[in-house]
Amino acid sequence: MPPSSRLDRLPPYLFAELERKIAEKKAAGVDVISLGIGDPDTPTPAPVIEALAAAAADPGTHQYPSNRGRPELREAFARFYARRFGVDLDPDSEIIPALGAKECVFNLNLAFLDPDSVALAADPGYPVYTGGPLLAGAEAVLMPLVPELGFAPDIDAIGLDVAQRARLLYLNYPNNPTGAVVPDGLFERAVEFGRQHDVLIVHDASYTETTFDGYVAPSFLETPGAKEVGVEVFSLSKGWNMTGWRTAAIVGNADAVATYWKLKTNIDSGQFEAVQLATVRALDDGPPAEMPAIYQRRRDLVCDALREIGVEVTPPKGTIYVWAPVPEGHTSASYCELVLEESGVVVSPGGAYGPNGEGFFRISLTIGDDRLTEAVERLRGSLGG
Ligand SMILES: Cc1ncc(COP(=O)(O)O)c(C=O)c1O
Q: What letter would DSSP give residue 155?
């Protein structure tokens, strides 16, 4: 039975060869350590789990949820945004819960793009910003992120023809995969661009709660005028160690939030109400305070080891990733294969995140300290000197 031609539009899966090699190694009995995936290893805070258990025991949560989310949940997001970012949100019109940032970003493409339209997406970037527009039958136009510009897209370099066809522009700071934090003036420039070309600015705030060295990440909605032209997708996945729970929200411009909701009512039936009530608890408690220090320690461990094996790396101020250049003479893929071959450690090839990711690799910090220390020692032992 042939699949829809829509699936043919997706780019080839760049991890395929690496995955084949990992399977081969494991079959040969190698103890492979994966630093490939950004999925927190630390458990969700106990009070959130207790809130889930209590809510799940109440039959009142067992029926179809409302797709708009319980009022308590929308109010909890509003309280969190006011406390954390100083941003006022109307719980009735400016907040809708989502089943993770991934669902939300993907559905924004269906909600806003037509076949002749464009979504502007960072390169390298989270793959849903580029796969989503293709599956929606539209086009993704890449905005290069390069170290010389602090991994910020050059919005002034977007051609008029593209700007006129653009409906969405994706930003994400702290940034996956580069670990960059938002450079001064970028959010302001994005607001101007959104106004000028009637483009919805979508800021993916998946990593605002995971920052280091005293840096505090802003919300895009703190930028003057942001709510006129933009929305923010806020996720609890990374900051609260809740990737499996599927809990996030879209917040900001009321018309855009309503458009997203209109689409969503036709696609899913909302979030289990017990998860909604547990999310209220999570938001009111705030993210677990110990996590940034844990990741910062791991970041330093990794950056020190990389320097010792001759990889020049800038320690990131946020996210759960280290983004580093591959040594001369290698492509991203060839270096990741060498690392796997020599040390049994999996790191991600930068090219998998877009053409401008070529020449880099990504290490995820979401593995327990013992295994991370072992991975780092193997790298030193096999690739040092
Ligand atoms: C930039 C970015 N956005 C969204 C997501 C997915 O988040 P969620 O678990 O909320 O769907 C990820 C996960 O790695 C990510 O890196």
A: G
Q: Please give the torsion angle defined by the CA atoms of residues 9, 11, 12 and 15, in that order, rounded to the nearest 10 degrees.
A: -140
**Which residue, judged by its Cα, is nearest atom 13 of ligand 1?**
38
- Is any atom of ligand 1 closer than 6 Å to the C-beta of 206? yes
**Which pLDDT score, from 0 to 100, does residue 10 have?**
86
Decide if pLDDT at 234 tops 90.
Answer: yes
Residue 17: pLDDT over 80: no
Ordered strands of the 321-325 beta sheet: 321-325, 360-364, 348-349
Q: What is the mean pLDDT of residues 121-148?
A: 96
The residue type of 126 is Y
Cα 308 to ligand 1 centre (Å) = 31
Q: Is 178 in the pocket of ligand 1 (CB under 6 A)?
A: no
What confidence category does residue 226 fall into, taking pLDDT thresholds of 50, 70 and 90? very high
Taking CA 63 as the corner, what is the angle to CA 60 and CA 68, rounded to the nearest 5 degrees? 95
pLDDT given at position 385: 56
Is residue 100 within 6 Å of ligand 1 at its C-beta? Answer: yes
pLDDT score of 14: 63
CA 362, 364, 365, 371 torsion-angle sign:
negative
Token pair belonging to 268: 């899913």
Sign of the CA dihedral with 112 first, then 113, 118, and 120 last: positive
219 touches ligand 1 (CB under 6 Å): no
Residue-averaged pLDDT of the chain: 95
Residue 306's CB is within 10 A of a number of other CB atoms, namely 22
CA distances 85 to 92, 209, 218, Å, are: 19, 11, 7
Could you give the CA distance from residue 56 to residue 328 in angstroms, rounded to a whole number?
54
Q: Using the mean position of ligand 1's atoms as its centre, give its distance from the Cα of residue 206 in Å.
A: 6
Residue 312 reports pLDDT greater than 90: no
The residue type found at 165 is: R
